[in-house]
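Morning. Coffee machine broken again, so started the prediction first thing and wrote up yesterday's gels while waiting. Chain of 207 residues, entered below exactly as on the submission form.
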Amino acid sequence: MKNLLVLLLLGFALSLCNLSSKLKSGASNSGSSGSGGSSSSRSAEPGRPTAAQTAALAGGHEIKWERQGLSWTLPPNWTEVTNESKSFVWSSPGAGHASLNVNISPMADNFPTDASMDAEYDGAKTRAKNGEVDEVKLVEIDGVTGVQFREANPEHPDGIRRLQWLAFRKYLGQVQQINLMLASEGKDFDRHKDAMYGILYSTKIVH
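Came back before lunch.
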């Protein structure tokens, strides 16, 4: 469990580093908020679960991150690991478990969310070309559009594989980045895959 959480936090930190570098490199190409040619001009598909993904949550329960106005439906027997102001983690039971890890990053009021979405999307596309990611798309969940990507199977079976969704919203007057990760070790990913997609698409967002 500790190793999985450490690797998930590392993945979150790397996401922020990638965002920062992309924004710096793209600053000269974006006059202000990056509205021209931005992700808003690309079409986002709705985050709708398949029948198998819905079935994977059967008998489950809704959990709420009250202080951030977010909620999900989880399969039975998942338990809370962390509930802090900017970090929220739940985990499935037993060996080879999966986890839901959500982080909130407050941004400045004038933060260029359109340019940032472009940076995240382009960064994920680059990772796909390098074979690090095998799925990249814009997905709208509960009225919020974000970049969804899935890491390729790791070289080692005990390496961590993540399904991730990055988005921005304004909540209680604050611009925030939502970084939502679902993950397990590579050897267990297929076993948890339907549940992880089902959890992702069950997300409810106050914005």
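The first strand starts at residue 45 and ends at 46. Going to sketch it on the whiteboard this afternoon.
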